[in-house]
């Protein structure tokens, strides 16, 4: 039992050593890519990295045209679902935007949500940056759904997409 405890302790110590080595490697990378860093302790360096990322996000937001917030396919920091209607050759097409944490099952969940409201994707754009994902889908509802009020169809699609984030 004593030998087993020692082996477990050694294994834990080795895993912890590898974790510290990875962290220190990433800290060294941050030091090399951040401009004009005066303080080099880890807390100051991480604070500067956060400040710089926020500054870059703000600059990217300012580049976005004000008339179309989805012109750039950059995921935002907040979760959101937006559904608006667009006319396309006389047919009702809904533009659905979903922004959330990235995860491996997101495409499967999107497919399942669209199938639940009997929607067909006619165009899709997706980007993933920094653990966040943004999907913009243009979907058509089936013929039976088109007879339903447009607001009800948009509402059902919005609910199905919100279910993905929960």
TrEMBL record:
It comes from the Eukaryota. Gene3D superfamilies: 3.30.70.260, Helix-loop-helix DNA-binding domain (4.10.280.10). Residues 1-21 are annotated as: Disordered. Keywords: DNA-binding, Nucleus, Transcription, Transcription regulation. CDD domains: ACT_UUR-ACR-like (cd04873). Residues 1-17 have a biased composition (Basic and acidic residues). Residues 7-56 form the BHLH domain. It is found in: Nucleus. One of its GO terms (molecular function) is protein dimerization activity. InterPro entries: ACT-like_dom_sf, AIG1-like, bHLH_dom, HLH_DNA-bd_sf. The keyword Nucleus applies. GO terms for cellular component: nucleus. PANTHER family: TRANSCRIPTION FACTOR BHLH30 (PTHR45844), TRANSCRIPTION FACTOR BHLH30-LIKE (PTHR45844:SF16). This is BHLH domain-containing protein. It comes from Genlisea aurea.
């Amino acid at each position: 039992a004593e030998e087993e405890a020692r082996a477990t302790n050694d294994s834990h110590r080795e895993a912890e050593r590898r974790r510290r080595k990875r962290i220190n490697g990433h800290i060294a990378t941050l030091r090399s890519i951040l401009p004009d860093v005066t303080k080099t302790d880890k807390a100051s360096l991480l604070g500067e990295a956060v400040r710089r990322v926020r500054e870059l996000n703000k600059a990217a937001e300012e580049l976005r045209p004000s008339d179309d917030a989805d012109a750039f396919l950059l995921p935002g920091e907040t979760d959101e679902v937006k559904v608006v209607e667009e006319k396309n050759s006389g047919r009702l097409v809904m533009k659905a935007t979903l922004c959330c944490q990235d995860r491996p099952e997101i495409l499967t969940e999107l497919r399942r949500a669209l199938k639940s409201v009997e929607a067909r994707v006619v165009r899709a754009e997706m980007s993933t940056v920094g653990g966040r994902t943004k999907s913009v889908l243009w979907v058509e509802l089936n013929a039976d759904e088109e007879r339903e009020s447009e607001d009800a169809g948009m509402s059902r699609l919005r609910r199905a997409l919100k279910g993905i984030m929960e």
